[in-house]
Amino acid sequence: MGTVLMVVLTAAAAAAVVVAGAVRAGRREARAEGARLAEEARRRARRSLDAVWTMDGREFERYVADLCRRDGCTDVARTGGAGDLGADVTGRLPDGRRFVVQCKRYARHRTVGSRDLQTFNGTARAEHGADVPVFVASCVFTGPARRFAARHRLCLIDVDLLGFWNGGTPLTSFLDLDIGRSGTHRKLHPDHD
Known about the structure:
The chain is of the alpha/beta class. The protein contains five helices and seven strands, in the order ααββββαββαβα.
């Protein structure tokens, strides 16, 4: 009887080791698949922006204003131009808060640095009464720019997030992201999709 019990316990322990290994392998595979799917989603989002790369600055501002309207924002106006003091698009979010958007339609291989964000931060709330300052760029933000934005509660929408916004994700989904920790901060090669 003791030998049978020993054999059963040994078999059970061996089975537990096998199951635990399979669970760990499954988790690794799930994490790898999740990372692969996230990267593919970023690539699709960037590819969906092909029209953005052909726009000039004013067309880009109209495009951003249209996305705001699509998402239920009201009183949306494109105000960009000489002397706009950093307000290219203004309006009200669905919850009534006033937003001000600064748009930068740069080449995909460029970056937006903290100097542009410092200028925008200096006018968005004080000059334009923004409850929610939003900076939208067709490229990426530098690490120092993201950290500055996080400290001053600026919403940043870079090329990746712009692709998701273009794909139907509402503007309000981006307002509370921890922008200081997100993104790659890497410039894209001019021919990168």
